[in-house]
């Protein structure tokens, strides 16, 4: 699997809210031994005077000093123009590994400028995006105190499994376990007719458990302790419960679709996951998924090359 080195960029817009993403990002950067790149973006609607630019540099300098005191190398960049286009270009030219952002709420809430930018970044960037929301900031100030696992929601598709290599990479460097989970929201039917309803439920859970064990064994082969979790019901609620019960460090999941997130079952609950989960979420968007398919990062139960992005259901 490909795990290229590179800095973690933090998207800053001059607000205190955006800066709240820094503590957990510093923890990840220190854990994987990579530097931070603080990126201040002035949008098209902003007239960047010399005075404004100097103020931004002073603020970035203060944040840089703080980050370095935490044991992380740190540099700064100031960009102008459309935030999405400017960041996309910067990510490619600077070889960025992750982009860290603070989002006010569900990524489908495009009434807010910050959420619109976050949503477009997740869709467009060829790298994973680390998203933190007000729920994250309310629950803890950073990841340093988290001792629980990395939770990886799966839906049985090879695309969902493309989150696994990132989970392995971070689990190894941060010294964490992985918890792969699957919740089936479909109503089991008695197939064949001889089976009763309870037997159908048991059969569905068995299939889910067998699938998760197959994935977990591949992760264990990489030397990472891995647990599984499966149940019938609302996937978002199950992910939330797993995060709370295990004191999870973060959630890592693949995403796609016009609403910013989701495929199969996950497509119906993605906004709920972003809204309800109180830990950072590393999202691998559609462009990043295409890059990972081309690299052959993770061979699941199906041929990854069979996925056609233009035909994928949202």
Overview of the molecule:
With 314 residues, this protein is of the alpha/beta class. It has two domains: 1-102, 3-Layer(aba) Sandwich (Rossmann fold), CATH 3.40.50.620; 141-314, HUPs (Rossmann fold), CATH 3.40.50.620. It contains eleven helices and ten strands. It has helices spanning 16-19, 22-32, 50-69, 83-94, 113-124, 134-139, 164-174, 197-220, 235-246, 265-276, 286-295; strands at 8-12, 36-42, 74-80, 98-102, 129-132, 150-153, 178-184, 226-232, 250-254, 281-284. The chain has a ten-stranded mixed beta sheet, sandwiched between helices. β2 (36-42), α3 and β3 (74-80) form a beta-alpha-beta unit. It is elongated, with a radius of gyration of 20 Å. The two termini are 27 Å apart.
What distinguishing features does this structure have?
314 residues, alpha/beta, Rossmann fold, 2 domains, 10-stranded mixed sheet, 10 strands, 18% strand, elongated, disordered C terminus
How is the topology of this model organized?
Blueprint: E1 8-12, H1 16-19, H2 22-32, E2 36-42, H3 50-69, E3 74-80, H4 83-94, E4 98-102, H5 113-124, E5 129-132, H6 134-139, E6 150-153, H7 164-174, E7 178-184, H8 197-220, E8 226-232, H9 235-246, E9 250-254, H10 265-276, E10 281-284, H11 286-295
Parallel strand pairs: 1-2, 1-4, 2-3, 4-5, 6-7, 6-9, 7-8, 9-10
Antiparallel strand pairs: 5-10
Helix pairs in contact: 4-5, 9-10
How many DSSP helices? 11
CATH topology of the largest domain: Rossmann fold
Multimeric organization: single chain
Task: Give the % helix.
Answer: 40-55%
Biggest sheet, strands in spatial order?
3-2-1-4-5-10-9-6-7-8
Rg over CA atoms: 20 Å
Tally the structural domains.
Answer: 2
The secondary-structure class comes to alpha/beta
According to CATH, the homologous superfamily of the largest domain is HUPs
Shape: elongated
